[in-house]
């Protein structure tokens, strides 16, 4: 039987960017260590229900990014001015998206595991 690769595990490679934070003394890059969480998905078999959970979490994360971008744009324009507002707002909305995707996927997996225990 051929083992299917769970491509979600490749998100953990983004944690390597945090090593640049050690080399360049850029503290902003340390947040990429959070992507090391996705290492666990190399050992998860990507069946149809798992793919459905990833799709649900991604849809929820996408919608949260679209909704959060506009308020972030207004707040960042007020705080930083027009020149720095756009990249800051996009960066914040991207961070929110990654956080929401991860939390939604954890909750969906927890519900699946909890439902499997009741069987």
In short:
This protein has 2 domains: 1-44; 47-119. The protein is built from 3 helices and no strands.
Structure report:
The mean pLDDT is 91. The chain contains 3 helices and no strands. It has helices at residues 17-24, 48-80, 82-117. Helix 2 runs antiparallel to helix 3 (82-117). The protein is mainly alpha-helical and 119 residues long. The protein has 2 domains: 1-44; 47-119.
Provide the succession of SSEs.
HHH
Total count of domains:
2
Stretches where pLDDT falls below 50 for ≥5 residues? none
State the end-to-end distance. Answer: 27 Å
- Helical segment count: 3
**Main beta-sheet annotation:** none
Number of DSSP E strands: 0
Strand content of the residues, in percent? under 5%
From the alpha carbons, calculate the radius of gyration and give it in angstroms: 17 Å
| Class inferred from helices and paired strands | mainly alpha
Overall spatial form: flat
Mean pLDDT: 91
**Helix amount:** 55-70%
Keywords:
119 residues; mainly alpha; 2 domains; 3 helices; 0% strand; flat
Topology:
Layout (H helix, E strand, L loop, with lengths): L16 H8 L23 H33 L1 H36 L2
